Every structure is written in C-alpha cells, then in structure tokens.
Amino acid sequence: MGVKLNHSVPTDREVILGILNHAEDVLHKLYVGYFPMILQFILNNNGDEDDAKDVYQEAIIILYDKVKQGNFELNSKLKTYLYAICRRIWLKRLAQSSRKTNNIADFEDVLAVDDDVDAYEEKDRQFEQMKNAMESLGEPCRTIIQDFYIHNLSMQEICDKFGYTNTDNAKTQKYKCLQRLKKIFFQS
Amino acid sequence: MNNDILLEALIEDYVNGKLNAAEQLAFEELRRNNPQVDHRVVTHNVFLERLHQYKTVLDLRIKMDEVHQEIDVEAISAQVRPHPSRIVRIWRNNRSAITVAASFLILASAVLLSYYSQTRQEGNLQLLDRKVSQLNQSQNHIIRVMNSGAGKSSTPATPAKFGGTGFAVSANGYILTNYHVIKDADSLYIQNNKGDSYKVKKYYMDPINDIAILKVTDPSFLNLGALPYGVKKQSAEIGEEVYTLGYPKDDVVLGNGYVSSKTGINGDSVAYQIAVAVSPGNSGGPLLDNGGNIVGVINGKEMKADGAAFAVKPRYIIEALNAIPKDSLNKRLSYKKRNTLLGMKRDKQVAHIQDFVFMIKVYN
User: Fold this and answer.
1) How many C-beta atoms surround the C-beta of residue B364 within 10 A?
2) Mean pLDDT within B172-189
3) Do B79 and A150 touch (CB under 8 A)?
4) Which among A8, A19, B285, B364 has most CB atoms closer than 10 A?
5) Range of A23's domain?
6) Is the complex ipTM more than 0.90?
7) What is the mean pLDDT of residues B140-165?
8) Residues A31 and A109 grouped into a single domain
9) Domain limits for position B24
10) How many CA atoms lie within 13 A of B60 on its CB side?
11) What's the domain count of chain A?
12) Same domain, yes or no: A57 and A104
C-alpha cells in the first residue's frame, strides 16, 4: 500500500444520502476525502495533477449520476468504487494516448466497473455535444437559453434583464433561440 | 410563426405538466392525430433531457472546481508522488509484501536458532547411580560385608547391582536419595561409612523431582541422634561454594565446587548446575554450603561436559519432607534452626556429616 493518507472521509451512507437529498456539503467532504488517493494513483502512473483532477471529477460525476438514477448498490466501499472508476478511465486515457500502460501501480483493490465507465462515455459525448452547440449558438441566445433552462429564470425576469418591452417578445426570442440550438444540437 | 411559438409553449407546458386536465386531454388528442406534433413533443423531450443533463454536470463541475481550489494539491502531491529514489518507490509500492517477507525471515531464523541451540544444549544427562558390578568393585564390597556384617542376618549374600548415596533426614532412619537410584529396586539396603548395612524400604517417591525417601526397617538400626545439618529454603546462588559427600566407591568421597548455573540440564528449573566433580554413585548425595546447610541433592551430570553436574534444589527436599507425617519423623531435618556445623572448618564438618550419609545398595 502507498503512503498513508490521513484525511477525514465521510461515511459511505452519509455520501449516498447526501447526494440523493442534494446536500451541499457532501460534495465537499467527498471530494476532499478521496482526492489524495486518486492523485497518488495518477501521479504514480504517468499522469500529472491536472489529469488527476479531470479523472477524479469524471468519477464523481459518474457516481452522482448513478446514485441519482437510484441504481447504485453499495456492495463495495465507496472508496473502492471511486478508485476503480478512476483507474478504468485513466487506463483508457493512457491507451488512447499510447502512453505506457503496463505495470499499473495499484493502491487499492480493483472492481470491475467497465459498464459504468462505458455508459458515462456516452453521456460525456452528449455533454460535449450540448456544450459545443451552446458555444456556437452566439449571444444573446446562449444567455437567454441558459438563464431559462439552466438558471431557471422566469420569462418576466429574462424580459427585464434583456430589456424586452413585453414577455411575448421575450418568448418569441427564446423560441427562436431554442429552435436554433435544437438545430445545431441534432445536426452535429 | 406565431402558431409555432404557441405550439412550442404548449408543448413546454405539457412536458412540464402545467396544463389543466381538459387542456391535457385536448393536447393528447392533437398529438395522436398529428404525427408532426407528436414528433415535436418527443424531440423536445429528448432535448430537454439532454439540456438537464448538461445543466447537472455543469453545476457539478463548477462546484467541484470550487472545492478543488481549496485543496492544497501541491502538498498532497509532494506526499504521494513517486519518490525520485527507486528503492523508496519499491518500498512504498510493496510495503506489505516486504513486511510479510521480513517477518517470515525473522520467524524462520528464530525457529532455526532455537532449534539449533536446543540441539546444542541437549546434553546427555547421566544419572549417577553406580553399576557396582560393572565397576568391578564387588570384591572389596564382599570382603567388607564378610568382615563387618558377620553377625547380621539381614546382610545380603550377593553384591549389590547398583549403588547410590543417601542422607538422613531424621534421626530415626528416614533416608533421602534420588528416585532414579531406587526406582527399579527389588530390595534396598543402606550402608554407613563403617560398613554396616541395614535393610530399608521405599517410603516416598517423587519421580518428577527425582526424590525418594527410604525408611529403615532393620531393627538393629540405632537412632542417629540430632542431625548436624539443616536444609536451606532458598537455592544457593551462582558462585556459592558447595560440597558433597557420596559413595562413588565404597568409602565416602568429598566433592568440592561451586554453583555454576541457576538451571539444570536444558533449562530445567527443578535443578541447578554445579561445578563439582561427581562420579557414578554420587546420585542422591547431599549438596551442602559452607554453613553446613543442605542446598540440594546431587542427581546427575552432563556426559559431554566436564565439571557440569546437577543437583535438585532444596525446595523439593522440603516438599518431600512435608509429605511425611510430622510425628513419624524423629528429630527431623530442620530448616529453621541454625545448625551445629556453622563456623566449623570443612574437615570438621565432614567428620560430623559422614555418619549421616549412606551408600544405597540396590538389588534387583
């Protein structure tokens, strides 16, 4: 085993319930708790701090997604699960960049999590697709869409923010923007 | 255009469940009849779902980045990054395996060492009962028997096969010796330094501590009078001068030396080791200190080492004495009083003691 990492970690149950109940502090505890483990793994396997951050954040996204879908069965320790996910993602990255992949230095037990990672890759592709669509949408459409669909602003608030004379104008503008976004998104 | 906007708003409300019951029914009717509308609903649903996912992940990433800012990545990196030294890296990565291997090595060497030292120390204890017939001393013995024991009906006609030493623990004929001396005996006699023999029987036996007590049954045996020696409760210390009287031959022999170890053969705690020259026949002899206290019973010697003999510690003598009813021992061995030998020179002591030390003759 590697260097002893003395960081307080929340209990697994605490994390699962926290994610389900949208508790704000649980992400902080979770993130701080297991980051050193992943950092150690990545640093010892041809990666750097940024790689660790990327991989770790992806693993947490996968965990959140899985827990929220309600099909997360805690039949191993959360720590082991996160480690396995990160390991799988990192091995794929190494293979893609044709960096050295033999002799992986492991620091934890390894679970088989290929399905979870594969499912995530599809979702990540969709995320990138949406992100690209948003970026090519242009202003003020992007802000309007984000305000309405992401920041949950009402039409009235949007109307005020952008100085439209009435909400109908704002609605029309939003409609046009949404049509454009859909077009870009589904065509790409 | 306006219709499209209206339809879009309607679809959005429908998807978000904001329509009332009647409107919802009407819309579903429209959806069934108009495939184009239906298609737009499905598309919108998919799109909203993607948008929601995008939003969730985006939120999470922003929050994680905030948390990440707080982490002192450098400090942790310094702690966990691969050490520049290859040896340290190997140690870190294989710490548990190395630990297991090391403990195995230590255990194995400990086992080997203890095995080795045990085999080395496993000396052969030679019990010092004398095979009289083998020692070719029977001639002397017979002569003496013939000379001195003429009138005594109890004196055996044949020479004894084994011999040892014993000493009186009471005035009325209780003799303490080694268990191994008398264990196979059919009949037993004791003989004093004047050559007088008396028949004795086994009275008490303690095979574990190698102690036996014999009782004189011969009516001709006279009361010995007060014992000159006492017995010490404590074992003698290493370096303390000790001596013994015994019958490796038919006359009493003095052996002189010191206590050399607190334990007997192979760490046996019942006995201790003494540097006194002893020979077969010394078994059962008293071990005395300079004050004339009995501090042990000679019971064997190391066959392969010179000058290493063993004596049972006095504690076990007292144990044996306590096993005999007090009133059957007349003027028994005392461990309380100062004994009469204290302060005497060695030769005077021996002169007093030798009347109380007997040869044990074993017939079987």
Assistant:
1) 12
2) 87
3) no
4) B285
5) 12-125
6) no
7) 49
8) yes
9) 2-70
10) 25
11) 2
12) yes
